[in-house]
Amino acid sequence: MSRLTVNNQPVEYRLDPATPLLWALRDASNLTGTKYGCGTGHCGACTVDIDGRAVLSCQVAVGAVEGSYVTTIEGLSRERNHPLQLAFIAANVPQCGYCIPGIIMAASVLLKRNSGPDETAIRAAIRNLCRCGIYPRLVEAIQRAARAMRGEETIPAGARPGIDPADAARVVPALVPPPRK
Prior knowledge:
By secondary structure, this protein is α+β, with helices and mostly antiparallel strands. About 35% of the residues lie in helices and about 10% in strands. Strands 2-1-5-3-4 form a 5-stranded mixed β-sheet, sandwiched between helices. The protein is globular. The chain starts with a strand and ends in a 13-residue tail after the last helix. GO terms for molecular function: 2 iron, 2 sulfur cluster binding; metal ion binding; oxidoreductase activity. Keywords: 2Fe-2S, Iron, Iron-sulfur, Metal-binding, Oxidoreductase.
């Protein structure tokens, strides 16, 4: 059994201690924001914050982080209003979105250590891969989030993601076929 704190909640995993933390988070805790990408530690989709370090959760065993504090994308902000999340949305950074949680977690660790990173520091800290090519917007979004975290800028919250249930199930009269006779 491995005991750790995940998103400020004490957790006891009754898993083989050699189980990758990624699978403990996704399968045992249902924290599916942490993504499985390559499984070899090259893509960064599984990045989480462990005790203030950006760690590839596919490469660390749950038993190896006994007693640690782990933060996933869900723990960063349940309301999706962390300055990084707002800055990414405002800059239209997400494309397919698969890599974004890992990138945001790596960026959050960077901003805890460096409140005003330049482009070189950002590119050195964010080694995550993105097949959609978000990199040109990524640097500015992280710098904008840093300014917001320092109180120099406000990033307005965008619309909540998702579809209003009333819009999802409405009937469009022109598309309703006439009754059968």
